[in-house]
Amino acid sequence: MRGKRCGTMRVIAGTARGKNLQALPGEDITRPTINRVKEAMFSSVQFLVPGARVLDLFAGSGQLGIEALSRGAKSCLFVDRSAEALAVVKANCKTAGRGPPE
Fold it and tell me: pTM for this one?
């Protein structure tokens, strides 16, 4: 299934649960994490997230940082070298009801 999209990305838990997130088209700049993988990642760190400061390095769409914020992280620093990706991160933060990213 390489190169095929897995449908809409969305926040899967927390205060922004169900919010749809955007991603840049294609896989040249971003490759969004599928919901199954995201759920497994957050299940393993669920007790560490509330109050944590999170770094979303190679942020792409910002979905992992936004998921952490939705689950109670104190803050998130989004980093990406692509200006287009950072614009998507800002839009996704707004969609999820978060202020502008750090």
Answer: 0.85
**pLDDT 10s digits, 26-68:** 766 677 788 899 999 999 999 999 999 999 999 999 999 999 9
CA distance 28 to 81: 13
- Nearest to residue 10, comparing CAs of 50, 58, 47, 64? 64
CB 86 within 8 A of CB 59: yes
Q: Is 60 exposed, middle or buried (0-12, 13-18, 19+ CB in 10 A)?
A: buried
Residue located via tokens 């809409």: 8
Q: Which residues of 80-89 are buried (b: 16+ CB within 10 A; e: fewer)?
A: bebeebbebb
pLDDT of residue 100: 63
